[in-house]
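Weekly modeling sync, notes
Attendees: S.R. (lead), two postdocs, one rotation student

Agenda item 3: backlog of single-chain predictions. S.R. asked that every request posted to the team notebook include the full sequence so nobody has to chase files. The rotation student volunteered to paste the first one in as an example of the format we agreed on. Action items at the bottom.

Example entry:
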Amino acid sequence: MPGIHLLEQSTIDKIAAGEVVERPSSVVKELVENAIDAGATAVTVEIKDGGISFIRITDNGCGISKEEIPMAFLRHSTSKIKTVEDLLHVTSLGFRGEALSSIAAVSQVELITKPADALTGSRYLIEGSKEVKLEEIGAPNGTTFLVRNLFYNTPARQKFLKSAQTEASYISDFMERLALSRPDISFQFISNNQPKLNTAGNGNLKDVIYRIYGRDIAMNLLEVHTECEFMKVDGFIGKPVISRGNRNFESYFINQRYIKSSLVAKGIEDAYKLHLMQHQYPFTVLHLTMDGTLLDVNVHPSKMELRFSDGKGVYEFLYESLKEALEHKEFIPEVSVEDQDSLKKSQTTTQPRVKAPEPFETKRVEKEQNRSEQSKENNKDRILPEQEKNLPEQTKAIPDETPDKEKAVMENLPLTGEQLTLREMPEYGGQFLTQEAKAKHRIIGQVFDTYWLVQFEDKLFIIDQHAAHEKVLFERTMASLEKKEYTSQQLSPPMVVSLNMREEQLLKKYLSEFERLGYEIESFGGKEYAVCAVPGNLYHLNQQQLFIEMLDNLNEESGAKTSDAIIEKIATMSCKAAVKGNQHLQKAEMEHLIEELLTCENPYQCPHGRPTIISMSRYELEKKFKRIV
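Predicted structure, as returned to the notebook:
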């Protein structure tokens, strides 16, 4: 066995670099965060070959004085903290003083920097932790880093990198999150001489969302602004229609730092639970602001994880904030009957809509064109939803002028895509489920013994009778349980169930909860239990199946179950009593179902997240029948 010996400094540096520099995106992250900490208002990131061969990062921050440059590349040298107590109040993105040392250990680095009060700038070369040159040169205010040939001296690390395209996508994702975290900073990202991202830096978060995700996302957002004694939540959340099959569209920031937190993700997803189907995740861009003493950011080398001193409080406030933002909104998705070819065509043409003539009515086209021109101005008010009229002016359009601080970054980069005029086109129907609207409902009839057609104004609404009845039963059960209107219905004879050891343990653990809801359960000897009474509002269900499923569902959930969670499970199961598809209903029964939907807090999705109602506009139908061309 070899004896103990000290490692060479170069070996130590390369090992330490592995904790900070995992891939090119790690280099970009550390250097851009340094630029932000230096007070930059414009940052440009340029890469080639996914950042493996070339990374250039330019900012207009405070720069580094010539005397401090060599020290900046030493391990644990930083301007951001002095003592461990400073970690309690750290506001900078970086603080460990490891980034420059780690990057220089595994690449060839060139630094050009100039503080605003210096007459000349400095150029510094360092390769594999070895200084090559330090000289004075002419340079603009700010700092430019050039990082070449990443992992050139650690080929084992280099071979574990992904393809250049994949590595570039990691950098692109980071730049997008960074732009969302700091809408007040102008970011430009260029990959292989192709512009990929360009933000204005005007402080308007919605503009940044538009530039990154496009019009479909930007026009389906709900604004969030809430505050409590220990935390503030600001930002935007997506309407259910823009949900995705993974968490890639969930972005949240703590004190302007992008993080990943299972606790925050759970708070977000639980708030959407009744609005989304299983395995669907919401779109969010949320800024959480709280005192630095209430969290610990010094958990992981990447600083992407943190700990909360009051995790439960953070979860509950975030959950309630988003739940409140989603309540009392009418989410009726509008469906299109267009095929894909015509949809693509309509997205690329701006010609006015013209009705096709009926047979023997050749003069009608000209009349409709004139009417279209006359009504164009009137239609503007109808196209724009009411809430847009109350939005600040800056959210409706980005100004034509480019601030001076942006010009340095953007002058050589032409804007791509359509102009950023965010007109809030209505993705959802009008107020269909109101008492005032109900008087104007025209129930046409039932199709496939499952769906009901209702005409209201210029739209056709299609109601899924099973999903709608599910929602009515769910909210009715939840309301009675939350009001503690618990009643018991005696069973004669009692229902005897046999439980295995796991089910028996769960029953004993949650027996008081079952009793509180109206169950009366007694031991019947051995592994058998007698259920003498059940909740009155669940009496119509298959009691044995319901009871066993309740225990199974409790077992599936990890951790302690709260009373509310048990109630929700029971209420969800009560939906088994809902009318089914392929079940004929009378018109009077449908009218009664619509009346009950009016009383629901969220009548637009069933408890499993499926829509209860969809709509189709008259325009869509007329276009399909070629009445409009």
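Discussion: group reviewed the output briefly. The chain has three domains: 9-198, 214-326, 429-629.
Action items: rotation student to repeat for the remaining queue; S.R. to check formatting next week.
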